[in-house]
Amino acid sequence: MLNAVLFIADPNMAGLLRKFASESNEFALAAIVELTMNGYSINRALSTTKPDVMLLEMTDLNRDLPQAAALHMQSPEVPLVGLASRDLHLLLARGSASDVASYAVWPFTLAQLEQAISTAVHKLNGGIHENLIAFLPGKAGSGASTVVLQTALVLEQELKRRVLVIEADLHSGVLSAMLRVEPKLSIRKVLAEAPGIENLSWQRYVTSAGGVDFLLTDTSLKEPVPSWTHYFQILRFAAPKYDLVMVDLPEVVNPATAEIVRRAHAVYVVSTPEFGSLMLSKQRCQELGNWGVDHGRIRALLNRGHKTDIGASEAEQILECPVVMTFPNDYRSVKRATADASFIDKRSELGIAYLAFSRLLTGVEVEEAEKKSFMGRFRR
Question: Peptide bond preceding 51: is omega within 30 degrees of 0, i.e. cis?
Answer without folding.
Answer: no
